[in-house]
Structures are given as structure tokens and as C-alpha cells.
Amino acid sequence: VRSGVTWITGNVSAVEFFDECAETAVVLPDGTATSVTSQFVVDAPWMPALGVHLRFGVDGYNVYLLLLTALLFPVVLACAWHTDEGRSPLYLALLLLLEAALLGTFLAQDLLLFFVLWEAVLIPMVLLILETPRSSETRNVGRRARSIGLRVFFVSVAVNAGVGIYAVVGP
Asked: With contact defined as beta carbons under 8 Å apart, do 2 and 85 qualify?
């Protein structure tokens, strides 16, 4: 099972990296982040009554975050290759889920979609913290994982409530 999971994880992460490199070359042909028009846009109605769309796109602002994410995950996999965590299919699946949620967060062009994907990043992050092997140094890892997850969740809810109030009420 491990060899199949690591093969799939490594290849998916490598394909994502090369895909992001190709998108970067197309979005930023002159090497500057001056393009504010989105390219590679996917737009589908998600909640039409609220005006929410599943809108993903690459522009000059998020292309660097996409490239950095796509570059770091193969490095993380390479560093974890011969560790106990790297042998766990759950660890590898959570890393792929985290990468997908981060890429979705950076690609999101709708505020509600961004918020949903930002919160989706918390799930694999907390589970990866909980997956850490138990030792004398990590005896309170469960409490720390819950604490981190709840703090980030409540702060992001407060920020999004403020943005929502600003959007409704205005300046």
C-alpha cells in the first residue's frame, strides 16, 4: 500500500509543480506581477440566489503563492520520504488534501469561496498536527491542535464577518 500511495502522492505533487510553472510562464511572460486580469478562469454558478460563483483564476497577484505552494510540497514529500510519517498513507493523503485546499484558496476569485477553502485548509492541518508521533516532547499535541484550529477558525470568522458587514453597509 505504501509504495502505491507514495508513488501517487509524489507524481501528483510533481505534476502540480510543473503545471504551476507553465501557468506562471503564460500569466507573467515579462516576469512582473502587473497583470490583474485573471487567466485560466473557471466560472460556474454555485449559489445563484446569493450571487456566489465557483470562480477560480490565475492572476498576477496569486501566481507567486501558487508557484510557492507547488514548489514546497514536493520538497516536503522529499524530506519526509524516509521518516515514519512519510510511510503513513494517512500522512501522505493529508498532505495532498492540504495542497489542494491551499491551491484552491489561492485560486479563489469569490469571497465566500475563499472563506470556505480557507477553512478547508484547517482540517488537514489539524489532522497533520494530531498525526505527529507521541513522545515526551509532544504529549499535549491534541490540545495544541485543537487550540490552533479553534483560534484560526474564530479569527477568520471575525474577519469575514467584518468584510461582510463592510460589503453590506459600505464605507
From this structure: no
- Over range 103-114, report the average pLDDT: 88
DSSP for 34-59 reads: ---S-EEEEEEEEEGGGTEEEEEEE-
What's the pLDDT tens digit per position in 41-64?
888 888 888 778 888 988 877 888
Q: pTM of the prediction?
A: 0.72
- CA neighbor of 107 nearest in space, from 165, 116, 169, 78: 116
Measure Cα distances from 143 to 49, 81, 121, 140 in Å.
40, 27, 19, 6
Residues 26-38 pLDDT 10s: 655 555 555 556 7
Identify any residues that bridge with 58 across adjacent strands, giving them in sequence order: 39
Q: Count of alpha carbons within 13 Å of 135, Cβ hemisphere only?
A: 3
